[in-house]
Every structure is written in C-alpha cells, then in structure tokens.
Amino acid sequence: MAVPEAERHRGRPRAPPQAAAAAAMARPRPPVKSRVPLRRLLRVASVACGIQFGSWGSPHAWASIIWLCGPLSGLLVQPLVGHMSDRCTSRFGRRRPFIVAGALSITFAVLIIGHSADIGWWLGDRGGATKPGAVGAFVFGFWILDVANNMTQGPCRALLADLTGQDHRRTRVANAYFSLFMAVGNVLGFAAGSYSGWYKILPFTMTSACNADCANLKSAFFIDIAFIAITTYISVAAAQELPLGSSDRSSSAADGPESSNTQEAFMWELFGTFRYFSGSVWIILLVTALTWIGWFPFLLFDTDWMGREIYSGKPNEGQNYNEGVRMGALGLMLQSVVLGITSVLMEKLCRKFGAGFVWGISDILMALCFLGMLTVTYVNSMDSGGTSPADGIVIVAIVIFAVLGVPLAITYSVPYALISTRIESLGLGQGLSMGVLNLAIVIPQVVVSLGSGPWDQLFGGGNSPAFASSETQDRHMRPANGDSKFLLYTTHMLEGKW
Q1: Whole-prediction pTM value?
Q2: CA 217 to CA 206: how far, in whole Å?
Q3: How many CB atoms lie within 10 A of CB 454?
Q4: Residues 114, 116, 119, 125, CA torsion sign
Q5: 272, exposed or middle or buried, with CB in 10 Å at 0-12, 13-18, 19+?
Q6: SS3 assignment, position 210
Q7: Which pLDDT score, from 0 to 100, does residue 251 have?
C-alpha cells in the first residue's frame, strides 16, 4: 500500500541545520516543471462533453431499479480503474489508455441502448404488455454505460489533477472546465433530442421494431457516437502525457513493502489509505455524501415531477403528463446554460470568497430550491384542481430548475478540486483519490436507489417525499458547506408501445 511521504520520514533523525543547508546546496535541483497552458486543460476536459451527451434517462417506474446499476459498478470500477491508472506503464501514458477504453465502452453501450427495441424483436418480442427482450437489452446497455462512465471520468479528472500538480488555482480551473463541458454536452443532448427529423437523415434506423419516434432517437445516439469520437481525440491528443518512467516506478516501490507486493488485495489498499486522511479530507467526503443524497432524488424525478405534480398528469394517459415532461426538459436545458455560465465564473468566485464558502452557500441554495419545489407543489394542488397549471406556477417551476444549475456546477467541480489538492499533499495517487471521492457519491446513490421507489409509491407515486428528504439532508449539512429527452422513448419501449 502506498505510504504518504510524511509517514515514511517520521522517526528519522534530523541533521543539524548547517549540514542540511550544505547538503541542499550540493544536491542538484530538479528541473522546474512548466505550467500547463489553460487552453490545453480546456482541450483535455472536452471529453466531458461527449460523455455527458451520451448520458440518458429512464422512466419513472424503472428509474430507481436501473439507477442501482450505477453505484454497484461505481463502488468497484472507479476506485479500481484509478488504482490501475496510477500504476499503468503503457507507452501511451497512465490515464489516456483508460479514457480511450471508456469512450469505446460508452459507444458500445449507446449502440445497445439505441437498438434495444430491435434486439428485443430479434429475441422474439412480438407484442404484449411487456417486452422482456427489449427490457433486458436496455438494462444491460445501461449497466455498461454506467461502468464506462466511471471508467472514463475518473482517469480524466485524475489527468487534469496530474497536469495542474499542486497549483490549487489551476486545479479549480481545470475542474471548472470539466463542469463547463458537461453543461455543453447537456445542451447539445437536449437540442438533439428535441429535433424530430433525424430519422430522415439516417433512414436506415427505421425497422420493423422501431417506428419513426424510435428511429429519431436512435439516430441521436449515432450523433452522440460522433461527438464521443471527436472529443476523445481532442482530449487524448492535447494531454501529451508521458509514460510512467523507471524513476517513478522506483519511487513508488520505495513507498513501502506493501506497494511492491503484487498479490496484495486491491480493496485492502483502498480502505487502508483511509488512515492517512486528515480531518479536512473526511469533512469533504461527508459533505459530498450529504450533497448527493440531496441531488439524486432530483436527478431521478425532475421531469416526472413536472408532469405529475405540476401538470397533474400520468404517464401514457392524456397530454398533460407529456406537456409537463416537455416543460421540464426546457427547465433542464436552461439549467445546463446556467451550469455553464457558473462554471466560467467558478474560479473568480472561489478566489474571492474561498472554495469551501462557495460550496457551502451552493448547498444552502440547493436546499432552498428543493423547499421551493415543495411549496410550488402545495400551491398548485390547491389552485389547479387537476387541470392545467397557471402560467405563474409553470414559470416558477422552470426558474427553480434553472437556478439549480448554480449549485450543480459547484458540485461538479469544487469537491474534486479540494480532494485532489489534499490527496496530493499526502503522496497518494490522483486516480485512487478520485475513486475514494466516488465512494462518497455512489453510497448515497445506493440509499436513494433502494429507497426512492418504495418511498414515493407509499405516497401514491408522488415525488414530493423524495424532495422533502433532499431538502432535509441539505439543511442538516449547511454548517459545513438530458435525462428527460429520452424519458418517453424508454417508457414506451419498456411498456410495450414499440
């Protein structure tokens, strides 16, 4: 197991100050590492655009079950990939091979999800209330997509941390760039999903099992593959990552006898690093976990909340629900725009007020937004009477969606910058540090995935209890600190409409 630098030197006798100064003057100084230009960091972070463009949603009835795939894979995949990338000796570099492999896996998963209806047809789906073949293909593809996202994002963030080193400002800028490209990917995804003529450009997507709507969204998946290919090439070409040299390997071997033992269990090494964490690292992990307990119910049920609670509709029953989903998609697109703007301003905010203070204020803002959603739900239930909501109610709901882009941008960037700079001082690998932070994200996702479905069904299928829980979690931690565009597609496919 890697032992921090401070731990290795503890207990050694110190030389007299005069002798230490003389030895320091006699020792040749290592060459000063030049700072990586910001435009190169921008190009490296661009892969987030392709990744986010390929992140799709799932229907309300299946959301919590399918989302459970993410944390189950993330508990092992990202820490393992980070651990392996820290020690990778490929001539192409430490991180780039995993980024390329993750991008190829995303492409494979997207093809499976886009062709779920066709795969179900080949497996014998010919009508009926459900299509087990299509459901199985979709869930399998979604699982692969989660694994691929973990395989790609962890090494990419670790690569950004490698390039910035101990420069805290550039680390924040690099993670803000990553958040910015996630916003760009969201906007492009919503734009692609809103256009209804893609199947005319790619007519081969229409099949016996896939009608015009299905083919249109399948075509959007092919566009996503093109975006992934372009952004991945730009990212890995800009990185100019050097292979892990013999000097790095020898220094790694000097960390202790544990790290040279190739038969050591990976999980022992992962959890063994916890004893080196300072109090500030534990606070970051705790606040991250509480933050994501608040975020996941919203990410699961955002447009569904608009369709059910605001437009008083039900899936596949009338137009109210579909209209609510479309308005929710508009709110999420505005949220992505706000997310991008906040990412651009991130460094100025952190430099003026401090990264921790900005993070804490953003969590308070998130809690207030969730409280606002509960208030809007209550007011609408008193006024609408099951009919279309008032224009003012819809505007307020969309504004809340848009404002949530501010805390979401900070959640996507500040915790990663804080953890990478503190892990760097401990002498642990950046890949492993991203994996450790990922544990603070996926464990809350397990809690939400297992509990959100039964919880909202207990209250008649509504979303308000989940948002109330989100607001409560955010309120308790204040002292510290394009899903919808494919909703109808997956709903229709899983319920046998296609």
Answers
A1: 0.71
A2: 10
A3: 9
A4: negative
A5: middle
A6: strand
A7: 36
